[in-house]
Specification:
This protein has helices spanning 48-55, 103-107, 117-121, 168-171, 177-188, 204-215, 230-237, 252-259, 274-282, 307-311, 326-338, 357-364; strands at residues 8-14, 23-29, 36-45, 70-78, 90-93, 132-134, 137-139, 151-155, 159-161, 197-200, 221-224, 241-243, 266-269, 290-293, 315-318, 348-353, 371-375. By secondary structure, the protein is α/β, with parallel strands linked by helices. The two termini are 18 Å apart. Bound molecules: 1,4-dihydronicotinamide adenine dinucleotide and the ligand N[C@@H](CCC(=O)N[C@@H](CSC=O)C(=O)NCC(=O)O)C(=O)O.
Length: 377
């Protein structure tokens, strides 16, 4: 029996308040309105950014909310005027939308899109309302995606159809962590063959930077991590060197400058630690080295360095979703995965049903988890 146009009651993991465990319970998911798409979510990854917002440290965090932004599923129904996807399409949700008509999208300079960013940040659909209800209350959306639910509603610019041959427990991870690191190396940074790099943090994002850097034929791909067990992971993805900064007798910046004849062409922060961000900048080569900030630091944290570091040519830049334009470029990444050009399967270290999503959060924070995938069925 078709559910089109009807309210769907299903299970979702609701965050009722900051720091509380998620509660898996019934939620009503309203039908999509004009330019909206209702998706049956099959798999979702769990990302540190979900934990960051759940902790209450995200200035944009508001409750009650359905978190989750790394999800894949199948289109259940579409609202009026939706032309970009259709019922039955296999899709990935996009927390960085792509309208192709706003100032950002038209600039050719960024993958950020301005069309719905304000309402997205308020946890609402573009018309300023919510499509979720539980316990008689409206529940907020998150990052325009809310994938910790068996069904979700997103704007049509926040979803992309991908090859249905690709398993959804893998494509979900292309909705954030893998694409973010891979895009940072292959799109945001302009790596030339032989460039020396340092990647701080070998989690899902850092490992993805490594595989992008290896593909660009970087010279030294030096991975810096406080967890020794990450060396094996880093080398599997293409790292040439591994350094644990806690085991050095000199600052990590001195070590990296010595290893690279003056500093790195590119460094990447994949930790979210502001001291690491400073070290990453100061490990760049004088005159041209660029430090790319990917990690998300808690509200109130700030980065600092001597302005002289910038005066002498080092550059600090950052990127969201790796600089990847989701609707235009994500289908190609899925094809690359299907042709074994990028690794995805290797990232999955843990799997959980939706009912155990709190255990997935605990696993994510343990040193041996690269990505935990949650099956929403
Ligand atoms: N800008 C964006 O679009 C996105 C940003 N992120 C952010 O990227 C960051 C990384 O995400 P994941 O890889 O999933 O995290 P993760 O926790 O799996 O990996 C972080 C790694 O950094 C290492 N580390 C921690 N402190 C360190 C230090 N002081 N020096 C060196 N290494 C250190 C840890 O041992 C770990 O291996 C998070 O802050 C996350 O919120 C995630 C996705 C998208
Ligand atoms: N809401 C936070 C900022 C969180 C943040 O930086 N999000 C990244 C993606 S992290 C994904 O896992 C992002 O895309 N930022 C760009 C954006 O427009 O939000 C805060 O206010 O600190």
């Amino acid at each position: 029996m078709s559910t089109e146009g009807k309210i769907i009651t299903c299970k979702a993991a609701i965050a009722w308040g900051p720091g509380e465990e998620l509660s898996v319970e019934d939620v009503e998911v309203l039908p999509p309105r004009a330019h909206e798409v209702r998706i049956k979510i099959y798999y979702t990854g769990v990302c540190h950014t979900d934990a960051y917002t759940l902790s209450g440290k995200d200035p944009e965090g508001a409750f009650p909310v359905i978190l989750g932004h790394e999800g894949a599923g199948i289109v259940e129904s579409v609202g009026e005027d939706v032309t970009s996807v259709k019922v039955g399409d296999h899709v990935v949700a996009l927390y960085t939308p792509e309208c192709r008509e706003c100032k950002f999208c038209m600039s050719g300079k960024t993958n950020l899109c301005g069309k719905i960013r304000a309402t997205q940040g308020q946890g609402l659909m573009p018309d300023g309302t919510s499509r979720f209800r539980a316990r008689g209350k409206d529940i907020l959306h998150f990052m325009g995606t809310s994938t910790f639910s068996q069904y979700t509603v997103v704007a049509d610019i926040s979803v992309v159809a991908v090859n249905a041959q690709a398993p959804m427990d893998r494509t979900c991870l292309l909705g954030c962590g893998i694409t973010t690191g891979y895009g940072a190396a292959t799109i945001t940074a302009k790596i030339h063959s032989g460039d020396n790099l340092a990647i701080f943090g070998a989690g899902c994002v850092g490992l993805s930077v490594i595989q992008g850097a290896a593909q660009k034929k970087a010279g030294k791909i030096i991975v810096v991590d406080v967890n020794d067990s990450k060396e094996e992971w880093a080398r599997k993805f293409g790292a040439t060197d591994f350094v644990n900064p806690t085991k050095l007798s000199r600052p990590i910046t001195d070590e990296l400058i010595a290893m690279t004849d003056g500093g790195c062409e590119y460094t990447f922060d994949c930790t979210g630690n502001v001291q690491v961000m400073r070290a990453a900048l100061e490990s760049c080569h004088k005159g041209w080295g660029e430090c790319i900030i990917i990690g998300v630091a808690a509200a109130g944290q700030e980065i600092s360095t001597r302005p002289f570091q910038l005066v002498t040519g080092r550059v600090w830049r950052g990127c969201a979703f790796g600089g990847v334009k989701g609707r235009t470029q994500l289908p190609g990444l899925v094809e690359d995965y299907l042709q074994n050009k990028i690794k995805v399967d290797e990232f999955i270290t843990h799997r959980f049903p939706l009912t155990e999503i709190n255990t997935a959060f605990t696993a994510m924070k343990s040193g041996d988890c690269i990505r935990a995938v949650v099956n929403t069925e």
